[in-house]
Amino acid sequence: MEAPTPLPSTATTETSADGSADDAGLALPGRSWLGRKLAAMRWREYALVTGVVGAITLVRNLLPEDYYHGLGFVYLLAVILLSLRVGRGAAAWASLLSVAAWDFVFIPFHYSFVVQNLSDVMLLVPYFVVALVLGQITVWIRDQVREKQIREERATNLFHLTRTLAAAKTLDEAAINSLRLLEELLKAKAALALISEPSGPPVIHAASAYAIEGREMLAAQAAMRHRHPTGRFTRLLFSGADYYVPLLCDDRVLGVLGIRVPANATLSDRQREWLDVFAHQLAIIVEREHLRATVERDRLLKESAKLHRTLLESVSHELRTPLAVITSALENLGHADSVLRDNLLSEARTAARRLNLLVGNLLDQTRLESGALKPRLDWCDARDIVNAALDGTREALSGHPLTITVPADFPLVRADFALTEHALANLLFNAAQHTPTGTSVTVSAGLESGGRRMFFEVADRGPGFPTALRGRLFHKFARGEAARAGGLGLGLSLVRGFIAAQGGEVIVGENTDVGATITLYLPHVAAENPPPD
User: Fold this and answer.
1) H or E segment at 441?
2) Which runs of E-coded beta strand occur in 139-242?
3) Where does the pLDDT of residue 432 fall: very low under 50, low under 70, confident under 90, or very high at 90 and above?
4) Average of pLDDT values for 401-416?
5) What is the DSSP secondary structure assignment for residue 462, as one 8-state letter?
6) Which of 18, 345, 374, 465 has a CA 20 to 30 Å removed from the CA of 529?
7) Crossing angle for the helix pair 491-500 and 338-370, nearest 10 degrees?
8) Buried b (16+ CB within 10 A) or exposed e, 239-249
9) 248: which residues sit within 8 A by CB, 6+ positions away?
10) Does residue 67 have a pLDDT over 90?
């Protein structure tokens, strides 16, 4: 993480263009809040040392005068115990004050720093050295143990954080899990605001436990602007209720993390260091999400451009052929005899139907993708659907023997007649176009065992579907390499869309010996009061 930019030690009042005071004018002049807190803590340590040594010294009147040699061990024990709680300076003060009190009060001459006997001098000097050394060693050992505990706690918290972030599949999930973890560790409320636009204000994430508003929003924006923590416990906007840490990653500010602790609570240096690490890890996740969104957007743009080229090439080719046939027929009608005129009119009608089918498929595909296609379910006769589909494809099926199997007592089905007929007609047209002339085509309808679904099935005796095409059979513009000219590859895509819109399913199978089978399944519910014919 980049080192935060140091802030000036004194406050300066700056006025923005609109006349409002800039947040630099809200800095605390002189010593920082943390400095005053540490100073007060140090004075309390010195006061504690002075009080304990003074209390031991007060037992002077309770002991005989010849007991002063053993009192040095009491002072030494007090120095060691105090070193478990106070810093190095206060421990050294305890050593110096104890030897001074011992000499001044207990060792003859009393109430004087003049020592009467050489043996007492030899007692005082080693005592002072031993007390000073033991006190410093005790403080050092205590600090080492505390530092080890801090490292273990930090490693444990970092492990929980990285595991939480690694398990998240989305940015929202990462934000929710990480903020709940932070609140559990600090026993405080957490809020997250992310920058959605480079020049816009931060947007409060829905996982935040409180709203960042008013003065707190000023503190959050100042944290992002200065790239340094602001708010409570800091020198910028210190009178606020919350503490804010910017999310920094590769010289970029991605947002801000806010912490709201109770009014009578505080954040220790260790907790604030942990918050810096936490904010950095969260910034990495936000940056990763931005990169993923950028990659996904680029991928969609490439696919859109590819689809656009494919559509343009396919449409331009497929539309040009029938238009050329119609144009040629119209140009030659004027000087053609009756036989040639009939042939030209037949070709023009075929080309017009092909053109109408292409345009209709394009419009239907647009309706499917835009969500404008809404099925209108009504009671229908399956035989009427089959007959309507056959009427629209009779010319294309003229070279194929046709077998129709629909039970005479087949019940009414609830479906969208137009969509179902269109889907069935597309299957019949594909069967006629992609199978050799003379091969049979079978159309059947029936109820699945159990009666929960009805089906329409189209089977042919053609080459079947290539293995390489099966995975993308219902994709837009999917065409086999050996497919005949004509069509955009939208037929099966539309079939699946029309049936899925009615809550149905399309299943592709194969005949036992040769050919392919496509079955359209629709939900079936028996009519309690079927409408009259």
Assistant:
1) strand 441-447
2) 189-195, 202-204, 230-231
3) confident
4) 88
5) S
6) 374
7) 50
8) ebebbbbbbbb
9) 1, 2, 227, 254, 279, 280, 283
10) no
Mean pLDDT, residues 447-457: 86
In this prediction, residues 46-73 reach a mean pLDDT of: 81
DSSP 379: E
At 124-177, the pLDDT tens digits run 899 899 999 999 999 999 889 888 887 787 778 778 777 777 777 787 888 888
Task: Output the pTM of the full model.
Answer: 0.45
Please classify residue 376 by burial: count the beta carbons closer than 10 Å to its beta carbon, then call 0-12 exposed, 13-18 middle and 19+ buried.
exposed
Token pair belonging to 452: 């929960």
Contacts of 104 (CB under 8 A, 6+ apart): 111, 112, 113
Distance between terminal CA atoms of the chain? 78
DSSP-derived secondary structure letter, 455: E
- Residues paired with residue 253 on neighbouring β-strands, in sequence order: 248
Using alpha carbons only, what angle is made at residue 343 by residues 340 and 344, rounded to the nearest 5 degrees? 85
Strands (E), 387-438: 402-405, 413-415
Please answer whether residues 233 and 243 qualify as being in contact, where contact means their C-beta atoms are separated by less than 8 angstroms.
yes
Of 279, 281, 284, nearest in space to 229 by CA: 279
Answer yes or no: is pLDDT of 233 > 70.
Answer: yes
How high is the mean pLDDT of the chain?
A: 77
Residue 11 has pLDDT above 60, yes or no: no
Three-state DSSP at 7 gives coil
The mean per-residue pLDDT over the stretch 201-218 comes to 85
One DSSP character per residue, 225-272 reads HHTS-EETTSSSSTTSS-EEEEEEETTEEEEEEEEE--TT----HHHH
Other beta carbons within 10 Å of 507: 11
Distance between CA 149 and CA 156 in Å, rounded? Answer: 10
CB of 87 closer than 8 Å to CB of 139: yes
Kind and range of the H or E run holding 139? helix 118-167
How far CA 245 is from CA of 161, 212, 229, in Å, comes to 17, 13, 5
Report the candidate in 180, 168, 167, 241 with the shortest Cα–Cα distance to residue 207.
180
Q: What's the pLDDT band for 9 if we cut at 50, 70, 90? A: very low
Tell me the C-alpha distance between 288 and 251, whole Å.
15
Using omega within 30 degrees of 0 as the cis cutoff, is the peptide bond preceding 455 cis? no
Q: What is the pLDDT of residue 42?
A: 77
Question: Six-digit token pair at 427?
Answer: 């299957």
Percent of the chain with pLDDT over 90: 8
Contact assessment for residue 173 and residue 286, using Cβ atoms and an 8 Å cutoff: no
In the structure encoding, which two tokens stand for residue 408, read together? 């005479």
Q: For position 129, what pLDDT does the model report?
A: 93
> Angle 515-521-522 (CA atoms, 0-180°, nearest 5)?
155
Residue 106 has pLDDT above 90, yes or no: no
